[in-house]
Amino acid sequence: MRKKDIIVNISNSETRIAVMQNGNFAEFYLDRAERTSIVGNIYKGKVLNLISGLKAAFVNIGIEKNGFLPLNEIPFEEFSQLFESEIEMEQERRPEEIKLRENQEIIVQVTKDSYGIKGPRITSYISIPGRYVVLLVNAKNVGISRKIRQRRVREMLFRTGKHVKPPGMGLIIRTAASRAKPEEIRKEVEVLKRDWDRNMEKAKNPAPILIYEEPDALIKTVRDIFNSEVRNLFVDSPAAYNKIISYLGKVSPRMRSRVKLYRDSQPIFEKYSVEEKLKSILERKIWLPSGGYIVLDQTEALVTIDVNTGKSSKEKQAERLALSTNLEALREIVRQLRLRDIGGLVIVDLIDLSKRDNIDRMLREFKSMIREDKARYRIGGISEFGLLEFTRERSRSSITSSLSESCPACKGRGRTMSRMSTFGYIERWFMQNGKNIRGKMIELQTSPRLADFLSLQHSGTIAAIAKEYNLILRIKADYAFNEGDFKVVVL
Question: Which residue of 200, 299, 372, 399 has the smallest Cβ count within 10 Å?
Fold first, then answer.
């Protein structure tokens, strides 16, 4: 069994949570007041407009951007209750055939945060997560976590779930329930049902209104990740430590002994070598132990990853070298996607293989590698061009977007105009405007890097420009200028 440690660093501005798996940096969570995720929150919203072509509606849930609600994300029963006087109660009728009305009030839950210009994605299939179970408000079935593989344990948990689930509702039995007693599961279901009934009292108020809010990142991590595989949870804040102990006292008292209050003077992330590893989370080029490397580029909807053998010489035979490098790269790709919490469509340019058996082996091992990841994957296979295509579920902004922002100089392109190209623009500016400023004292303002380039490498051309138009021309370096920008000022 893989052993994990959770390291929690609390400061006034942010909460940082690192999950270490067998000594490796496996997951990272960041919670800031101005960028708190709303995934899991439940709102009573109001339908603003319907887009028939998309079979979806935009719903005002009381935040800056309206929620996007596909019509197939609304249970048939809910339509039936909303429009019972207007539709026939036919089970074979599909939800997307039923029309919502503008200004209709509806209860929804956020499944994806806002991303770029897009608003949050929402659903009317409501679920309330606990430590051992997820209460399904609109379903009646009982499901078991895929990570629970023992048949005897699954059968026992299924019987328990059928027995304790509230009438008209369903349950998903979570991984942590495999070590729980039936009585603990029953108590949690009762608590979740009481909380939902209390939320429904709030829902009597007019929309838009928040009726259920997910806990903060700290308690959410303890609820979702702090299971039997975790050896220790270290936290450097007494207040956060007491908060965790209080929560576990209600849901899992046996786990309290694994929570440790960190008291050393050395910062906790430095003590456990997290700070150093965290810097690599923004790197575009990631080296593999064998000497190969991957290059990871991300756009709004697409992630492209290039696999290269680099300095690898582990195998002498080309096919074996390609296979070993691809497998090593796929293992690192799974880790990086999970660590950075990157989602969307992923295209991996693998090193070409000629043998079909090796290609099939790569796919089998890749499917095995992603089992540790909580996110859902859809794997499209490997194309004739050696491209592996798959999607990874995205519910919130990636860690990369939380830790970084677009460069003001390159506007997120990753490249700026070359100094030589900018010099060409400067020459053309003087050719077009030199006659109008003849005999003047001129100051050419630009970035320090470009100012050095002009003064040291093209001083002769600058002097020729000044002579041609009878100018007193000086160059001024100004850090306020981005690379590629310049300004000509008449003094």
Answer: 299
Domain 419-490 has CATH 3.40.1260.20: yes
Instruction: Report the pLDDT value the prediction gives residue 115, as an integer from 0 to 100.
Output: 77
Q: Virtual CA dihedral for 370, 371, 373, 378, nearest 10 degrees?
A: 60
pLDDT at 89: 36
Q: Is the pLDDT of residue 229 over 70?
A: yes
| Residue 90 pLDDT | 38
Instruction: Report the DSSP pairing between strands 441-446 and 472-477.
Output: parallel
What are the two backbone dihedrals, phi and then psi, of residue 273, each rounded to the nearest 5 degrees?
60, 30
Q: Ranked by mean pLDDT, which of 69-78, 127-136, 380-389 comes out on top?
A: 127-136
Out of 3.40.50.300, 1.10.10.10, 2.40.50.140, 2.40.160.20, select the CATH number for domain 42-212: 2.40.50.140
Q: Do domains 4-37+216-276 and 419-490 have the same CATH topology?
A: no
Mind listing the pLDDT tens digit for each residue in 266-276?
999 999 888 88
Whether residue 52 has pLDDT greater than 90 = no
**Fold of the 4-37+216-276 domain:** Nucleotidyltransferase; domain 5 (3.30.420)
Examine the pLDDT at 140 and tell me if it is beyond 80: yes
Look up the pTM and report it.
0.76
Half-sphere exposure (Cβ direction) of 10: Cα atoms closer than 13 Å: 17
Domain positions in the chain are 4-37+216-276, 42-212, 283-400, 419-490
Nearest-5° Cα angle at 122, 165 to 202: 60
